[in-house]
Amino acid sequence: MAFGFFKKKDIPKKETSKGNSHYHHLTVKDIIHETADAITIVFDASPDTISYKPGQFLTLILTIDGKEVRRSYSLSSSPFIDDTLAVTIKRVDGGLVSNYLPDHLKVGDTVKIMEPMGTFTTEFNQEQKRHIVMFGGGSGITPMMSIMKSTMNQEPNSIVSLIYCNRNIDSIIFKQELDDWQTNFEGRFHVIHVLDDAPMNWQGYSGLLNHDMLVSLFERIPDWGVDATTYLMCGPEGMMKNVDNLLKEQHIPSEKVFKESFVQGTIDKSSKSDTEGAVSGESKVKIHYDGETHEITVKKGDFILETALDQGIDLPYSCQSGLCTACRCKKIAGDVSMVEDEGLSESEINDGFVLICVGKPQSDTIELEVG
Length: 371
Hints:
The protein has 7 helices and 19 strands. It has a 6-stranded antiparallel β-sheet, with helices on one face. A 6-stranded parallel β-sheet has the order 10-9-8-7-11-12, sandwiched between helices. The relative contact order is 0.13. Helix 3 links the parallel strand 8 (159-166) and strand 9. It has helices spanning 96-104, 141-154, 175-184, 211-220, 237-249, 304-310, 346-350, and strands at 23-35, 38-43, 57-64, 67-74, 85-90, 110-117, 131-137, 159-166, 189-195, 205-206, 229-234, 257-260, 282-289, 292-299, 328-333, 336-338, 353-355, 359-361, 365-370. The chain is α/β, with parallel strands linked by helices.
């Protein structure tokens, strides 16, 4: 792949007694209030101590009301520019963690995190020349910010066009920073803002990002040709669906389009469980992770990850909804069915990758490798 992107019930978790390098305790260095409902948490940690790629996410592990909860948040910092790691979080109506953090987190607090993960990322090359077209909505700007800053720094011959949708002008996350980047990299970085509720003197686009507006926006974006252009999107599902439909209408190959879905809460996996042709019995599941092999027995109607966690096996996970891909495994042997596969690309599924948080055993024996 020329561009280099790689597609993509809270359960108490018992940790192993030995130390685990996949987890860290980070001190909050600063809390920046980006908008009335969005904050950036800056951790006192550098890319030298915790390595990550632009576009990846951190999983924050908190104890709220006596229960451990995990949420994934994209890193808005760049490992090539920023000395510290930062995630940006926007309040969500009814969101347990997205509301808890702005209300309770303080500078100096310590937060447990799982190492950076995620496949919504790319490798950078000083000689590379490409056009990255980004469609962001609301907090969907966070991985875009990391990728944009890295592109400007690492690829002097590449350009970035950002179409950024928000409710109103006051809800634009990183507004001043985006303006500064556009000024400092004139000709290479261009932002087009779209507001649902625009002020009277607004000169830009307003309303929902519909088909006609997208057609007009495409006329303003430099045309570098299909081979040199890649499209990224992260935001509300409705926005991404509209963009996806237009890209198909424009005959943009699917391998040039990459999406990142944010998970708000968890899905009701029981509503997606098999109701017909359910497999009975048990499966012997062997899982290779971090130099160790775990063998467990899983009922064929149960999710593999939940069973492993109940038995105290330390495996990576976050959303438990089949979207963040933290629990992605390569299938070595056996058969696993998933009730949700949105987090995996078609090529990953064809290559035998499965998500065990939404995966149930279908064969008597299964062998998996985490990663």
